[in-house]
């Protein structure tokens, strides 16, 4: 996995987790949902990079 792509995926996951937590603490369901969506996007990006790595080797 390229280091840059891996970092972007981890950052996206972390931002999503922060948004989700903030949403839960404030009772803001929209923010919670945005956080979950951002985490899912980061997870998908990470999975895509892992698949690319499998086919490289």
Q: Which structural class best describes the helix and strand composition? A: mainly alpha
Molecular shape: elongated
Low-confidence stretches: none
Strand content: under 5%
How many E strands?
Answer: 0
Oligomer: single chain
> Residue-averaged pLDDT, rounded?
92
User: How are helices and strands ordered from N to C?
Assistant: HH
Helix share, percent: over 70%
Number of helices: 2
Q: Main β-sheet: number of strands, strand sense, barrel status?
A: none
From the N-terminal CA to the C-terminal CA, the straight-line distance is: 11 Å
Question: What is the alpha-carbon Rg in Å?
Answer: 13 Å
List keywords for this structure.
mainly alpha, 0% strand
Can you walk me through this structure?
InterPro entries: CsbD, YjbJ_sf. It comes from Streptomyces albipurpureus. Pfam families: CsbD. Belongs to the UPF0337 (CsbD) family. With 57 residues, the protein is mainly alpha-helical. The chain is 91% helix and 0% strand. The longest helix is centred in the C-terminal third of the chain and has 28 residues. It is elongated, with a radius of gyration of 13 Å. The mean pLDDT is 92.
Helix and strand topology:
Layout: H1 3-26, H2 29-56
